[in-house]
TrEMBL record:
It holds the Pfam family Abhydrolase_1. GO terms for molecular function: hydrolase activity. The keyword Cytoplasm does not apply. Residues 12-252 form the AB hydrolase-1 domain. This is Putative esterase/lipase YbfF. Keywords: Hydrolase.
């Protein structure tokens, strides 16, 4: 079982999957807004992916392994109920893998600023990982001390990465499996995290409704990615959010909440029709 948080008490089931170095709680504000003021509009499950947050660590990264762990967690929570699965970045890849491998579990899919393709390598994360590994955990006296020692010019990125730092009594540890991701960075263009496995590309297409949200200012989704997306997810509809980068739900939360509430409403109508 993966670690989870919840929001909402009624309505369709919605699972949120975060990106690399994120945690389920990164989606909490969005989940609360989607579930409505009294929590009756959606039952949201915010998942910590393997190697992140409070979830168990893996020996080696596997996108299909991550999807299987999410599937087991969703079934343990909702039996054979169908879910709206929302995934950002790495979580979006996991969500797509889940839809392709367990289509009976996914009633609707929302993919946020990622495409089903090989992104080459994780070199853009190498500096972050090196700084995280270099932080002298045994010497830290406080979170403020950690923040002063961690070298990163972007305060938002620093805060995001340091959310993975946890205090246990008088000692500190990283919740994210840094060694695993460092090994993946070292693989260069053979990165497993950046890859999209051929085994997934060869699976039958997922026939459920798909909303593909992209940030207009992001380089993660390009026009040429549409062909592969439509081949694997023929019922895809794209929403490009002006002024938003890769973190679409942070840059334009109102737009994302409105889009997700429409997806939830359509799922509720479909359930009523049955």
């Amino acid at each position: 079982m993966l670690a989870t948080l919840t929001a909402g008490t009624g309505g369709p089931r919605v699972a949120f999957l975060h990106g690399l170095f994120g945690q389920g709680r990164n989606w909490m504000q969005i989940a609360k807004a989607v579930s409505g003021p009294d929590g009756a509009d959606a039952r949201c499950l915010l998942v910590d992916l393997p190697d992140h947050g409070r979830s168990p660590w893996s020996e080696e990264f596997s996108l299909e392994g991550y999807a299987a762990a999410v599937a087991a967690t969703l079934r343990a929570t909702g039996g054979e109920d169908r879910w709206i699965v929302v995934g950002h970045s790495l979580g979006g890849k996991v969500a797509m893998a889940l839809a392709l491998t367990e289509p009976q579990l996914v009633g609707r899919l929302v993919v946020v600023d990622i495409a089903p393709k090989d992104y080459g390598d994780l070199e853009r994360f190498a500096g972050y990982i090196r700084e995280m590994q270099a932080l002298p955990l045994a010497e830290l006296t406080s979170r403020a001390d950690a923040e002063s020692r961690y070298v990163e010019s972007d305060p938002g990125v620093k805060a995001f990465l340091l959310q993975n730092l946890r205090r246990d009594g008088h000692s500190w540890r990283w919740q994210a499996n840094l060694d695993l991701f460092a090994r993946d960075v070292a693989r260069g263009t053979d990165s497993l995290v950046a890859d999209w496995p051929e085994s997934l590309a060869e699976r039958p297409a997922y026939e459920g409704p798909v909303l593909w949200i992209a940030g207009a200012e992001s380089a993660y989704v390009r026009q040429e990615d549409g062909e592969a997306m439509r081949r694997m997810f023929p019922r895809v509809r794209q929403l490009t959010v002006k002024g938003a980068g890769h973190w679409v739900h942070t840059d334009a939360p109102g737009v994302v909440v409105a889009a997700l509430r429409r997806v939830v409403a359509s799922a509720g109508k479909a359930a009523d029709a049955r």
